[in-house]
Amino acid sequence: MMLPAITEVLPHRGGMLLLEAVQRYDSAGLEARATPDAAAWYADAAGDMPAYIGIELMAQTVAAWVGLTARQAGLPVKQGVLLGTRRYQPACAAFAAGRPLRVTASPVYRDESGMGSFLCEIACGEDRLAEATINVFEPEDFALFLQESSAQ
Question: Is the dihedral of CA 11, 38, 57, 69 positive or negative?
Fold first, then answer.
């Protein structure tokens, strides 16, 4: 399978698109590449990416896996939301600018209602920099979901 450009899989654009490319994809998970940029909106005083941005790296990797899985099944790619994580464990305070990161996401649980849980990891070379289990929700009708959510 030829891997598509990341912009074909994710709706994020400009500075909000944190992933550069899909490196590997199969039913067991996805591996993406991201390189922190010292000139980006998120850069700290040293030009590095604060480790808390890693949750968004993981969420985008999950979204890429879900999108590619839908495309493979001939289904439209739907929008989803990050519900959160119980435990995000970064091994450092920031990810160094210019050093490529390997972000992986593997499904642990998915159901028909759109709920899902993914085991995620961020690494640089052989060093594991962060890990978490990310919980997501892919509503059947995203616009209705947003409308109902904002009415509460």
Answer: positive
Tell me the percentage of the chain whose pLDDT exceeds 70: 99
Rounded to an integer, what is the distance from CA 104 to the centroid of its chain?
Answer: 8
pLDDT of residue 139: 84
Q: In what order do the strands lie in the sheet with 81-90?
A: 21-26, 29-34, 101-110, 115-124, 127-137, 81-90
Which ranges of 10-87 would DSSP assign to H, the alpha helix?
Answer: 54-72
Instruction: Report which of 78, 70, 102, 89 is spatially closest to residue 4, judged by C-alpha positions.
Output: 70
Q: List Cβ neighbours of 53 (8 Å cut-off, separation of 6 or more).
A: 18, 42, 95
pLDDT tens digits, one per residue of 59-100:
999 999 999 999 998 988 888 899 999 889 899 999 999 999
Does position 11 have pLDDT exceeding 90, yes or no? no
CA–CA separation, 76 and 63 (whole Å): 13
What is the spatial distance between Cα 96 and Cα 130, in angstroms, rounded to a whole number? 13
Q: For residues 152 and 138, what is the distance between their CA atoms, to the nearest angstrom?
A: 19
pTM: 0.92
